[in-house]
Write a structure and sequence with these properties.
Length: 319
């Protein structure tokens, strides 16, 4: 297939672009490089630099596209609380421009990078797809709005869409990994301590109702996640919008993650307990039964594999 990957110079987008390219697809990346990196765009893949508003129309108008994988987004929860308009415009506004361009070019197949943040603080875990959606920050709210637009465009304009709601993505693949200017995610932060970039891991709260008092999250390897996108692409059906959660179904506490990082790196990795981070739910766990049953997706990598690959990337696997 000929595919447009928006945000293909970012973390998940670059891994999916690499996998698509390796499996024989023609891939064009559209990315404004505001947070992505030009060298994260896989060799053999054309990079068009620009926002969706600026370039989606003319890129898709070249013709021949079979579908779009849409990753381009602003994704910092804290920033979204400080500047919600940036998120409504940057996520929903830019996505509407992309969808207009798709309609103009007659491209109806889309896989969208959504998030567990649409569920907010869940009443029950594991979270299933029809759990209540009550995002607790503008980031999650904008992603939910885009899911809703896709559902309507399926009904009204014949789009065939799949929204994949990611839980905690980790690991690296083929030289493509996580590198953010501002690092807030747990695993890169912990590995940053092992690398000497910081002295200790800030543990945000140990008074949660979990076994060791620290937050429990559902980590999924980026390559397992990427494979789900290929399955979703094949499953797109005109007029239908589907939603799938993507997690491994296994929960790890912050302390357990640090333990695995110690074992992988051989570094003592000191921790310091700080107050809770605003808006962090105690436990987030996905039920990924739906995508397993419908599309045959399976998880092949555990937390140790994620940390090993993230560590290799941190040590110099980066491009
Ligand atoms: N966390 C932490 N210290 C850090 C970064 C994260 O204790 O430096 C905790 C955070 O409170 C959450 C978990 O680790 O419970 C995962 O956080 P991350 O930001 O990686 O992902 P989130 O679940 O917030 O999307």
């Amino acid at each position: 297939m000929k595919l447009l990957v928006t945000g293909g110079a970012g973390y998940v987008g670059s891994v999916v672009a690499a996998l698509l390219w390796e499996t024989g697809h023609e891939v064009v990346v559209l990315d404004d490089l505001s947070t992505g990196h030009a060298d994260a765009c896989p060799d053999g893949v054309r990079l068009v630099q620009g926002t969706l508003r600026e370039r989606a129309h003319d890129v898709l108008a070249e013709g021949g596209y079979d579908g779009v994988l849409h990753f381009a987004a602003k994704s910092l929860v804290g920033e979204s609380v400080a500047d919600p308009a940036k998120y409504w415009d940057g996520n929903l506004g830019e996505s509407l421009a992309l969808f207009d361009a798709m309609r103009a070019a007659g491209v109806a197949r889309i896989v969208f990078s959504s998030t567990a943040a649409v569920y907010g603080d869940p009443e029950t875990v594991p979270i299933v797809e029809d759990s209540p959606t009550r995002p607790t920050n503008p980031y999650g709210a904008t992603k939910l709005a885009i899911d809703n637009v896709l559902a309507e465009y399926a009904r009204l304009h014949g789009f065939g869409g799949v929204s994949l709601r990611y839980f905690n993505v980790a690991g690296a693949f083929g030289g493509f990994g996580e590198r953010h200017a501002v690092e807030t995610h747990l695993i890169p932060t912990v590995l940053g301590v092992a690398l000497g970039a910081r002295d200790e891991v800030p543990v945000f709260g140990e008074d949660y109702p979990t076994a060791d008092g620290t937050c429990v999250r559902d980590y999924v390897h980026v390559i397992d996640l990427a494979r789900a996108h290929l399955l979703a692409l094949d499953a797109c059906a005109p007029g239908v919008h589907r939603v799938y959660n993507l997690g491994s179904g296994a929960g790890y506490s912050v302390r357990e993650v640090v333990e695995v990082c110690r074992a992988v790196t051989g570094h003592p990795i000191p921790m310091t307990v700080l107050p809770r981070r605003a808006g962090d739910p105690g436990t987030l766990l996905a039920s990924s039964e739906a995508i397993r049953d419908d599309l045959g997706w399976t998880v092949e990598h555990d937390l140790t594999a994620m940390v090993e690959d993230a560590w290799k990337f941190a040590l110099g696997g980066r491009r």
